[in-house]
Amino acid sequence: MARVSKSHDVLDFYKSSIFSTFMNSNIETYEEIFEKDLVLEVDSNPFVPNQGKELSPLFDVMVDGITGKAGVGCFGGYSTRIVIELDEEHPELGASFSTKYFIFDDNKKGLVHWGHDNKSFTIKKKKD
């Protein structure tokens, strides 16, 4: 197995590996999305409590070829954030990821920029 030294090299390795080939066999059941497609129907924040309702479940997604669950909402906090729980470790995001510093690209469906260092990932949502 080839050694990789930079985080982008790790991501490229995952994308070109047999693992990616296996994961992409299910890719036709997922579609690129915008932020609005991951917004929780029932959410909660300190200004608008959910009045005892349970938060909406996370959506089935694929992040850079790795399956998992994700949603956009306040999740009880003061600001909107994206929460991602993956089935496998992602080289940059890990298995569990959350940030309020994210933006979906207006020009490319499924592309999400995050953090302050111009990092990004692609996200697709499972078709209904």
In words, what does this structure look like?
With 128 residues, the protein is mainly β. The chain has one domain (7-126). The protein is built from two helices and eight strands. The protein has helices at residues 7-16, 18-24; strands at 30-32, 59-63, 66-73, 81-90, 94-99, 102-104, 111-114, 119-126. Strands 1, 2, 3, 4, 5, 6, 7 and 8 form an eight-stranded antiparallel β-sheet that branches. Strand 4 (81-90) and strand 5 (94-99) form a beta hairpin. The chain is globular. 18% of the residues are buried. Mean pLDDT is 85; it is low at 1-5.
Keywords:
13% helix; mainly beta; 128 residues; single chain; disordered N terminus; globular; eight-stranded antiparallel sheet; 37% strand
Rg, alpha carbons: 15 Å
Count of extended strands: 8
N-to-C SSE series? HHEEEEEEEE
Number of domains: 1
Shape label: globular
Number of helices: 2
Termini, distance in Å? 37 Å
Q: Which percent range fits the helix content?
A: 10-25%
Strand content: 35-45%
Task: Give a quick account of the main beta sheet: strands, pairing sense, barrel closure.
Answer: 8 strands, antiparallel
Overall pLDDT metric? 85
Q: What structural class do the secondary elements suggest? A: mainly beta
Poorly predicted parts: 1-5
